Amino acid sequence: MASEKTKRKHSICMVSDFFYPNMGGVEGHxxxxxxxxxxxxxxxxxxxxxxxxxxGVRFMTNGLKVYYIPVVPFYNQCILxxxxxxxPIIRDILIREQITLVHGHSAFSALAEETLYHAKLLGIKIxxxxxxxxxxxxxxxILTNKLLECGMSISDHVICVSNTxxxxxxxxxxxxDPRKISVIPNAVDSSIFTPDPDAAPKDRIxxxxxxxxxxxxxxxxLVGIIPEICKKYSxxxxxxxxxxxxxxxxEEAKERHKLHDRITLLGSIPNQNVRNCLVKGHIFLNTxxxxxxxxAILEAASCGLQVVSTKVGGIPEILPDSMITLCTPSIPDLIxxxxxxxxxxxxxxxxxxxxxxxxxxxxxxxxxxAKRTERVYDxxxxxxxxxxxxxxxxxxxxxxxIGFFVITFVFLANFFLLMIVExxxxxxxxxxxxxxxxxxxxxxxxxxxx
Length: 450
Hints:
Elements: E1 11-15, H1 25-39, E2 43-49, E3 56-59, E4 65-69, H2 87-96, E5 101-105, H3 110-121, E6 125-130, H4 139-153, E7 157-160, H5 163-172, E8 181-183, E9 205-210, H6 219-232, E10 236-241, H7 247-256, E11 263-267, H8 274-278, E12 283-286, H9 295-302, E13 306-310, E14 324-327, H10 331-347, H11 353-363, H12 366-382, H13 389-395, H14 401-424, H15 436-442
Helix pairs in contact: 1-12, 2-3, 6-7, 6-10
């Protein structure tokens, strides 16, 4: 492993509203990428907001330092966007940890967006990863896209998790230079998500759903197909893991159609239990209405499940046709494709679980994602972008007249606040933190930092 490590080492700050103990694709991406970057010799810290009573500094596996800053979430696990209020503590962390590169995650994250502006004023390089797809017509998308455009205008490079996501982000953020945006897909830890053919029942066919039960994940479609499949196939059961406002619809369908013994609702489950849930099934069903890259599909395929999914967003890019059955996001087509998969299970006309697992293992690997992300870091570090205040403000011109004046006003206010904070708390008075992550990895035999 030492021979693979690059000579250049970066001090990286991952920033997002979404991190553990919250569970999801972005949270898993940040954690896995951070672990692989630590393995490659880089210094990595994570900044997120507090979760209930979890605030302050915590250490995770291999000495990954996480700052849970004392800012409460406002809506949908995101903080209230103010920009100015987070400057003092974010500045203190970036200086204390001697950060050379800030990596923000998710267009939904207000904390990541704010940290971009703070990092720009501090002369720190910026990389941004977009994990989502957005529309262009509704008010929410228009506002989010305008904020994304302002943030991307000062970012040094943008990473997307699929080609579809790249095209979507390119249009939403009005990126002028196509060389500024790269595609690095997600991955799966195949050492955790392993098949277990003995875990699934032999006399039943279990369809597994692991998803947040919200509109965007197609819960309404799921509610429409469950009664029909259960009516046609008495040997089919549903195992559903996840929580959300749409769970009440599934509970109502369960009561209305008397499917208490056919539908098992697990609710929200810890990340470490997802694999044990998946291996209990034969078919994995995804009904998302929009998806940039669905990690849950990779996890299910790695466990040897036959995948049925809606053909939306970046999903067609994930797996070959032999591993996944795609359909339009409609109830009739979903029922038809699920029936095809049921017949395949009955006839044995499918790829063996271990073969599927080995293919996924060769196709997707977090270490490969880390290597490719590392090349982006090196490219950004070598770029000679201007960090002057005037240069940053001029980049906002592409955000439109109203967007330009609003974001310029906020950016200048942030600059003046930075000057005040610099005066009362000079950077040379801030104690520098030791590189605990590397120390913890080297001394793992005597220092347990889990």
